[in-house]
Amino acid sequence: MTQIESYKKSLRDKINHSLFSVIATSIILYFGAPVFIPLFIAIVIYFTLSDFLPKPSSSMLKRWTVSILATLTIALSFLSFLYAGSGPIYKIFQQTSTNLNKIERTLIFMREPIDQLSQAEEKVESLTESRSKNKPLKVSLEKQSFTGSALTFFQEFIADFFMTMIFLIFFFVYGDQFIVSFAHLTPFKYKGSSEKSILKELKKAASRYFITVTFINLCLGTLIGIALYCLGLNNALIWGILAGLLNFIPYIGCVAGSALVFIVALPQFDLGWPTYVAPCIYFIINSIEGQLITPVILGRTFCVNPLLIILTMGYLGFVGLFLAVPLLLIAKVIADNTYSFEPLASFMECRFDTK
What we know:
- The protein is an all-alpha fold and 355 residues long.
- It contains twelve helices and no strands.
């Protein structure tokens, strides 16, 4: 066997191994979503904050005490944030609902052609039904009430919340030991001097990403809030805070924020120029931050394939909107430091050059 054939066989084996791992992992994640989603949340928090907790060499009592206190602090902070933000967010959605009715009255001139189109569609359906001998059986599905949907969502939220807290305490106490032991069980060969060096790099990457993105979004929200205030938009401070929060959501956050600003600005400015300038400013500032500032600050290491981000958000649902990028970055760091996953690491990178 020549050297070229040996290289091709080795590369083919690596690709097949990576594809099999991806397919097997996808199947496991699909059927284990109720457990894995809280687990993923706990992993992201653990990698981000574990360096601030006692090291594994600390006494077990100290580790358990600090871990429980840290978890309770995170839980109370999150619930306090939800409680404090529920009022302004409810006000925004209430205002948005009212503004949609105003927008409908403002754009009443567009109703006539739409009504004509609906009438034409009904006539076509009636002609089709009259010509057919056997009328199709119409099946109506009973929709769940809003109260029932809200109750189901609340129950799922409580279950996921407590499960996440349990996982988080476990990771804060035994996380380092568990991950290193698990890495020893795998047949993969790592590039670092030891599994602990990769664990240290994972923590460093997660902490750097969270701190950097939080600072960027804080500056972004401040800038957008000032810009909207100068335009005279009502509740500009709230919109600045919302812009910073929405920017944690890749791609969707920018579009959703721009649309919400347009919905709020249209009734207030009555189709004046600020109606169109406000969402344009929002979108332009977000685009400059997303395409220029953040990639330069974070660098190529934190660049992930957009397709994987969208797929991860689809799998994780609402939680995935905020955790898709951190989870993929953790997976990318692992793939970068594992010889068997080199093709997967290359696929996960966001590259625009074809050289």
